[in-house]
Each structure stands twice: as structure tokens, then as C-alpha cells.
Amino acid sequence: MSEPLSTLARPCRHQQDIRKSRFLAQAAPVTSAEHALAFVRDVSDATATHNCWAYRIGQDYRFHDDGEPGGTAGRPILQAIEGQRMDRVAIVVTRWYGGIKLGAGGLARAYGGSAAECLRTAERVLIVEMTSASLRCDFAELALIKSRLKELDAVVVTEQFDGDGVVLHLQLPLHRVTEAQARITDLTRGRATLTTSY
Hints:
Elements: E1 6-8, E2 12-18, E3 21-29, H1 33-43, E4 50-57, E5 60-64, H2 74-83, E6 89-96, H3 103-120, E7 124-126, E8 130-137, H4 142-151, E9 155-162, E10 165-173, H5 177-187, E11 195-196
Helix pairs in contact: 2-3, 4-5
């Protein structure tokens, strides 16, 4: 099984000088392409020489070199995100040119290295894939089932009461579905069944 992905707990930044150019990497957790592009607009500095960026949200990703030679800025920033096993992250690396050319390899190392160091020192949170589920139970079993679901990191989203009992709509970690189904079946001796929507 591959190492789980993480995202940032909060926005972060890292600054360094490389051969008289100043590089400022700014990263933030994002939830959509629109959110990522808004972050890029918000932190880009119009007085800088370049504002290069990348984001990854699941299978959705983009990067931009902002006038640097193709492949020397945006792609290394994206590779820093992937190399750190991160997702739902956007990074802008802003460069103020200091008069010394770095060459293609030097630019890739500067942009990718600034992004990687920014992420390396940041506080992270694991990404736990959640799924929706529901179950019907008797009134008498409700308190026990809710306490067991809480132990499985499930969250009750809604409860619907009727004359026959209660229907619970839940969010629970995808990796705990099988365990939750077995536990609910055992607790209720097969009277209640957890069903998922995936």
C-alpha cells in the first residue's frame, strides 16, 4: 500500500536568495481549481520578475512558467508537490531577478527546491478519504450504535425518525467501511445493515 497523501494544515512560506535572485515560495491548502487560481492571483507580486506556480487536487493539476524557459519553473514546483506526497495544494514561487542568470538546470533547482523546502517545513494533515453511508435501526439500539460509530471515526450527518425506528446518514473513512459493516451487523444481530453509496 502506498504512503497516504497529506495536505497543508495552513498556508506557509519559505524565502531564500540564490545567486542574488530572491525566491519566495508560498503554499496553501486548496479544494478546487478555482480556489487554487484565486490563491495564485492573491499572492502573486506584480513588481516581481516572475510568479511561477503549480497546483494538484487529485487528478487535476496545472502549472505555469510565467515567462521562464519552458519546463524550468512550473513543472519543478509540481514535482515538489508530488515528491512530498501532497495533494490539494497550490504553490506560487515568486522570483525577483538579481542580475545573474541561473541557466535551465539552475532555474529548475531554484524553483523546485524553494517549493520543496516550503512544503518540507510546513505542518501537514493526512487526507482521509470519506464516503457516505446509511443504516436503519431500532430506537433501543440507537445510543449503542452511535457510540460504536464514533469509535470508527464516523460522523452522523442526519437522523430521520419514523414509527419503525431511525435512519442515520453518515460520513465515515473509506478504509473503515468493512469494519463498520461487520460491527453494526454483530451489534444488532443482523437487524441493521450499513450501506454505502460508493
